[in-house]
Amino acid sequence: MSNKQIGYKLLFILIGYSVFIMITIALIACLGSALLVYYERGAFLFGFRNDFIYSLKVGITAGVPAGIGIWVLSKMQSKTKK
């Protein structure tokens, strides 16, 4: 990452990226568990709407603190370099 100012714009970008990544990971995990159940029992239990809503909840719950934490750490690092 180049030398950029660590401001509030970066905070919102980090939160957005973190939420998106967490939603993607949760959705892939739901799909993987549905495939595992399908191979074990023969029933494919993946409801896109319910699993997507669950992934949104998980993504927002985990992504916002992760984005804020990354921003705080980078802000602290930039303060110690000055």
Nearest-angstrom radius of gyration?
A: 18 Å
- Number of strand elements: 0
Q: Provide the helix percentage.
A: over 70%
Report the order of strands and helices.
HH
What is the end-to-end distance? 17 Å
Strand content: under 5%
Mean pLDDT: 92
Tally of contiguous helical segments: 2
Which spans have pLDDT < 50 for at least 5 consecutive residues?
A: none
Largest sheet: none
What overall geometry do the principal axes of the alpha carbons give? elongated
Oligomer: single chain
How many domains in all? 1
Structure, briefly:
By secondary structure, the protein is an all-alpha fold. It is 83% helix and 0% strand. The protein contains 2 helices and no strands.
Features:
single chain, 82 residues, mainly alpha, 0% strand
Question: What's the arrangement of secondary structure elements?
Answer:
Blueprint: H1 8-41, H2 48-81
Helix pairs in contact: 1-2
